[in-house]
TrEMBL record:
GO terms for molecular function: oxidoreductase activity, acting on the CH-OH group of donors, NAD or NADP as acceptor. This is Oxidoreductase. It comes from Drechslerella dactyloides (Nematode-trapping fungus). InterPro entries: KR_dom, NAD(P)-bd_dom_sf, Sc_DH/Rdtase_CS, SDR_fam. The lineage of its organism: Eukaryota, Fungi, Dikarya, Ascomycota, Pezizomycotina. SMART domains: PKS_KR (SM00822). Keywords: NADP, Oxidoreductase.
């Protein structure tokens, strides 16, 4: 808690699931942190801000609309971010991400390819480049990328999503090696199955299909991953938990998630 005291933390995709839980877990761990909560749905972020204010009045929350899939919007976001937040940034949690469908190669809509790549890959890269510039100026800072088991073990119906997460993994590792002469830390956290809005987004709002993914199994919660992210962020500056894979106990890899299909 002491190590995270007064840290400024930017979370992408803080309106739901893992990102939202991560904001709350930082709050619980260090009730005087400064959180920049970003996503496309600012109304939901405002509710999160109110919840945090109620629970931990010393936590400062800045809500900002940000669509990471739009390079121009990412640029606008950094330009509009007040200097007292931007220049003091300590931790970037690149969590925003999504999956669309389970179509096989040949049948995947171009727009689905575009949204997964522009969000999960280009968006994450653009956010990271801006943050790393700030971190380099102060020779400190932590980037935590949310990858996925899907990036390690590609599965049928996941060619685009899995390859975006493999890209996150490779990007993260290159960057960590580039930065070894600095105090900047780079980490990737790869969750297995977590019950969030993830499947609802995959199945385009079809709640029955989304619920079926989690029927008969006990998935992780956003909180489970949030605890790992905050643990990674809260280590001594010389400690880099470079790479973490987190499963619920029933899961052995991606394929097991589709055994009921
Ligand atoms: P949710 O759908 O619950 O949350 C996704 C978050 O990403 C939302 O806050 C959403 O906010 C945000 N987001 C989506 N697109 C954009 C965008 N273009 N710009 C900004 N924010 C965006 O899913 P999870 O919490 O499960 O997902 C979080 C991360 O975890 C993702 O990277 C996902 O790939 C990864 N993951 C999830 C697993 C799971 O089983 N759930 C397993 C492994 C990894 P908004 O819509 O308001 O913009
Ligand atoms: C989410 C897990 O296996 O559904 O990244 O792709 S999976």
């Amino acid at each position: 808690a002491q190590r995270l005291s007064r840290k400024t933390i930017l979370i992408t995709g803080a309106s739901s699931g893992i990102g939202r839980a991560t904001a709350l877990e930082f709050m619980r761990t260090a009730p005087d942190v400064r959180i920049i909560a970003t996503a496309r749905r600012v109304d939901v972020l405002e509710m999160l801000k109110a919840e945090i204010r109620e629970a931990a009045p010393m936590v400062e929350v800045l809500v900002a609309r940000l669509d990471v899939s739009d390079a121009a919007d990412v640029k606008r976001f950094w330009e509009e971010l007040p200097a007292e937040w931007r220049d003091q940034l300590d931790i970037l949690v690149n969590n925003a991400g999504l999956v669309k469908g389970l179509e096989h190669v040949g049948d995947i809509a171009e727009e689905d390819v575009d949204i997964m790549y522009s969000t999960n890959v280009t968006g994450l890269i653009n956010m990271t480049q801006a943050a790393v510039k700030i971190f380099k100026a102060r020779n400190t800072g932590t980037v935590i990328n949310v990858g996925s088991i899907a990036g390690r073990e590609p599965y049928p119906g996941g060619s685009i999503y899995c390859s975006t997460k493999a890209a996150v993994r490779a990007f993260t590792e290159s960057m960590r090696k580039e930065l070894i002469n600095t105090r900047i830390r780079v980490a990737v956290v790869d969750p297995g199955q977590v019950e969030t809005e993830f499947s609802l987004v995959r199945f385009r709002g079809d709640k029955e299909k989304a619920d079926a993914v989690y029927a008969g199994v006990e998935p992780l919660t956003g909180q489970d991953i949030a605890e790992v992210v905050v643990f990674v962020a809260g280590r001594r500056e010389n400690v880099v938990i470079a790479d973490t894979l987190v499963f619920p106990s029933h899961q052995g890899g991606t394929a097991s998630m589709y055994r009921k299909a």
